[in-house]
Amino acid sequence: MRHYEIVIMIHPDHSEKVPLLIEKYKKIINHHSGIIHRLEDWGRRQLSYSINKLQKAHYILINVEITPKTIHFLETEFRFNSIILRNMIICVKNAIVQSSPIMKLKDEKKEKK
Q1: Which among 33, 39, 97, 26 is positioned nearest to 69, based on CA atoms?
Q2: From the CB of residue 80, how many other CB atoms can be counted at a distance below 10 Å?
Q3: Predicted TM-score (pTM) of this structure
Q4: Which of 7, 28, 14 is nearest to 70 (CA)?
Q5: Would you report the helix, strand and coil content of the chain in percent, each value rounded to 5?
Q6: 8 Å CB contact between 38 and 3
Q7: Has domain 2-112 been given CATH number 3.20.20.80?
Q8: How far apart (Å, rounded) are the C-alpha atoms in residues 80 and 71?
Q9: Quick one: which of 70, 55, 60, 54 has its CA closest to 21?
Q10: Which residues are CB-contacts of 1 (< 8 A; sequence separation ≥ 6)?
């Protein structure tokens, strides 16, 4: 099994469906004997450039340990899901379990308030 980092950008009008999508992909990963090391919902964020005339997207980050066959299946799921604007899958050397810099910034902002 290999380690992967997956970032998904979801259409902002479908942000209410994010928990359902997360559960769907968690079930797929668990069904194929995968391990989720980190799952973060970054929320709506500003895009660097517009995609389909959109200025924002809802971001999700997932670090998993699964087989290449399962990653191919997930890629197909992402490609044919109309509410997913973009996805990026990167093979990494080790499991990443600590918080991402974006989540650390969110936590710091919450502590200041």
Answers
A1: 33
A2: 8
A3: 0.87
A4: 28
A5: 40, 40, 20
A6: no
A7: no
A8: 14
A9: 60
A10: 33, 34, 35, 65, 66, 67
Closest CA to 40 of 2, 88, 7: 7
Please write the tens of the pLDDT for every residue from 31-86. Answer: 999 999 999 999 899 988 888 899 999 999 999 999 999 999 999 999 999 999 99
Enclosing H/E stretch for 31:
helix 18-31
79 Cβ neighbours under 8 A, 6+ residues apart: none
Assign 26 a pLDDT band (cuts: 50, 70, 90).
very high
- How many whole angstroms separate alpha carbon 113 and alpha carbon 96? 29
For residue 33, the SS3 value is: coil
Q: Tell me what the pLDDT averaged over the chain comes to.
A: 90
The structure tokens listed for 6 are 């997956």
